[in-house]
Description:
The chain crosses the membrane at residues 21-41, 53-77, 89-113. The protein is mainly alpha-helical and 115 residues long.
Amino acid sequence: MTEQADPDKAKPDIEAVFRNGTITAFGITASFSLGFLSQWASSPGAWRLHDAAPAGAIICGSILQIWALALLLPIEGLARPIYDRARKLYLAGLILTGCGVFGAVVADVVSAITP
């Protein structure tokens, strides 16, 4: 019986320059996510129950983005399986954060037009 090769081991490592660019992009968008959350938290006005879901989505999405960034920072982040995992976490975090921001905007619009 022949041994099957591990597909992750067959993939080449990520180039350091490419990973550095990815780290920069992840860091910038994670800082925008945290900046939006900080701006929203410090804005005047009371928080309402409908703010909980968007805030939760932004917080969870930001955590995933930071987790993805943390996976890429060590030298092991050059390994293809770690890079791929970080990329998937980052995209999930970005989508979740985007949904949270969209939800916050929709909630603000709805609360502004309803008495």
